[in-house]
Amino acid sequence: MNATTLPQWTWRDTFAVYLREATHQFLAVLRTPGFALPTLLFPTMFYVFFGLMFGKSGDSQVATFMLATYGTFGIMAPALFGFGVGVAMERERGILAMKRVAPMPPLAYLFAKAVMAMLFALAIVSILFVLGACFGGVRLPASEWVGLALALVLGSLPFCALGLVVGVRVSGQASAAIINLIYLPMSFLAGLWVPLQFMPHWLQEIATMLPTYHLSQLALGIVHMHARGSLTDHLVYLVAFTMVCLAFAVHGWRRIRDR
């Protein structure tokens, strides 16, 4: 296909292609039980076991605290695995090569994966919110519910960027193991499972270098749960982390394209 045969895109055409690609990406992942079920069930079960059971004494502080931390834990999985494993597998199967020659905007593929990750993040957050409100006694002003939801859903984007770095640089066979080596240690070290105050000081210092720490502290700050540092500092870190990861990902993406 040469330049004279390429379709002339209007903004409506472009929007329709982006929307269609995002819809297909979400439905394809939703129909994959090995991805969809663990992504939705794991953070839900952990929150029920550790957030709600420990918060049944009439004090909703534990349930509120872990709503922010397990919300952070939950939104990471669709972002990291969707990009890290998904891109790596589709790259090896030749799907990325097909996307490059297809008559579609070049960013539609990545946009669709980001939308998929955020939709799964929204589903996870919604489930946790219902559980926290109905069974954990979590009571927040409407502005804090909305703010926490936005922070967690948009907070999946730094992990999309990190997953993309893995997806464009690691083989499909190794991608799941690499993502797990990132996902689980970052969750533990950032205090998502065990509050940081119960960890050794040197582990608390390591936590401050991780995006999981900054997103969880941002979420805790929104619900006024004694977050460390300022919300602005955490937001600046997450934006900077995303930009750095995207820079590495773009370099890897160009290397794939030039092959």
What labels describe this entry?
mainly alpha; 259 residues; single chain
Walkthrough of the structure:
The chain has helices at 11-30, 33-52, 61-92, 95-101, 108-135, 142-154, 156-169, 172-189, 201-207, 211-222, 231-257. The chain is mainly alpha-helical. It is globular, with a radius of gyration of 19 Å.
Number of domains: 1
Q: How would you sum up the global shape?
A: globular
Determine Rg (CA atoms, Å).
19 Å
- What would you call the structural class? mainly alpha
Which sequence of SSEs, written as H and E, runs from N to C? HHHHHHHHHHH
Averaging pLDDT over every residue, what do you get?
Answer: 89
The major β-sheet equals: none
Distance between the termini: 19 Å
Question: What is the beta-strand fraction?
Answer: under 5%
Query: Uncertain regions: pLDDT < 50 for 5+ in a row?
Result: none
How many runs of DSSP E, i.e. beta strands? 0
Report the total helices.
11
